[in-house]
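[recover] target loaded
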C-alpha cells in the first residue's frame, strides 16, 4: 500500500513547518511527516523550508543570521508561533507509536551545505529516540554522504526534479549514482510522469516517492500505479483516496 507523507506537516491545511501543523498532522493518520531543517550561525537547528525568512516569517533575510533572541521575537506568518527548533519539533513528533519522519536537511541561501549539520541532525534524532523511524533527506548527495558517515543506521532519501537531474547529467545517470546511497528516491511528479518507463525499469516501486501531489486525479493516478510513497500538502485527501481505492 502506498505510504502517504504530509509535506511540511500538511501545508494546505495548517501553516507549514509549524508546531500547530505538526500536532494536527499527527491526528490525520499519515504514514510519515516531512519537514525541513536549516542551521544558524549561532548553532540553532531550525525547522523552516526556505533559506530566506521573507515568505513564511514576519521578517526578512537569511535564516542563518538569526540569533536565538531574534528567533524568539520572529513570528511565523498567520500564526502566533515562532520558528520552531528541531528539538521542539521532535518533542511533538518523536512518539514511540507515531509516524515516520522525513527530515530534509537544507542548504543555505548560496546553495552551500551548512557545516556539520548532518551529524548534528542525526544526533538530535538519536537523542529523541526517533533515529530508527526516520529518513534523512536532501537534494545534495554530499549531505547524504555525510549522513551515511555519521549515522549509517538511519535511512536516507534523495530528492530530484527536472532541473536537478539535468545538472547531474540526466536522470538515468543520477539514479545510477544514488542507487547505493539512498533507500528512497523522491521524484517530482512532472519528471516522474515524463520519465516513467526509465524510472520503472530502474527502481522498484517500493523505493520510489512522487512529490508533491494535491489534486484528486493526480493522486489517484499514482495510487493506481502502486507507487511506494506519495507526498502531499493535502494528506487528508490522499488518505481518503487511498482508502477508497483499497475498498
Amino acid at each position: 500500500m502506498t505510504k502517504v507523507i504530509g509535506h511540511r506537516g500538511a501545508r494546505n491545511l495548517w501553516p507549514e513547518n509549524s508546531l500547530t501543523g505538526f500536532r494536527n498532522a499527527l491526528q490525520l493518520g499519515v504514514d510519515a511527516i516531512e519537514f525541513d531543517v536549516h542551521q544558524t550561525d549561532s548553532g540553532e537547528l531550525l525547522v523552516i523550508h526556505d533559506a530566506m525568512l521573507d515568505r513564511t516569517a514576519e521578517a526578512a533575510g537569511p535564516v542563518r543570521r538569526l540569533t536565538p533572541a531574534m528567533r524568539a521575537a520572529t513570528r511565523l506568518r498567520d500564526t502566533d508561533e515562532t520558528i520552531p527548533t528541531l528539538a521542539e519539533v521532535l518533542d511533538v513528533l518523536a512518539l514511540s507509536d507515531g509516524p515516520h519522519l522525513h527530515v530534509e536537511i537544507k542548504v543555505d541561501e548560496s546553495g552551500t551545505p551548512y557545516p556539520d549539520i548532518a551529524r548534528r541532525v542525526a544526533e538530535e534524532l538519536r537523542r529523541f529516540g526517533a533515529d530508527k523511524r526516520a529518513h534523512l533527506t536532501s537534494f545534495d548527495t554530499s549531505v547524504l554522504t555525510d549522513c551515511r558517515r555519521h549515522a549509517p543506521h538511519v535511512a536516507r532519501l534523495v530528492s530530484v526534479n527536472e532541473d536537478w537531474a539535468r545538472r547531474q547529467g540526466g536522470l538515468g545517470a543520477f539514479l545510477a549514482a544514488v542507487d547505493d546511497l539512498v533507500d528512497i528516491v523522491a521524484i517530482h511528479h512532472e519528471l516522474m510522469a515524463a520519465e516513467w518507463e526509465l524510472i520503472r525499469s530502474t527502481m522498484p516501486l517500493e523505493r520510489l516517492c512522487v512529490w508533491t501531489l494535491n489534486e484528486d486525479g493526480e493522486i489517484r493516478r499514482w495510487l493506481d500505479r502502486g507507487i511506494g510513497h506519495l507526498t502531499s500538502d493535502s494528506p487528508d485527501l490522499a488518505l481518503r483516496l487511498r482508502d477508497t481505492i483499497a475498498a
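[recover] notes: The chain is about 35% helix and 20% strand.
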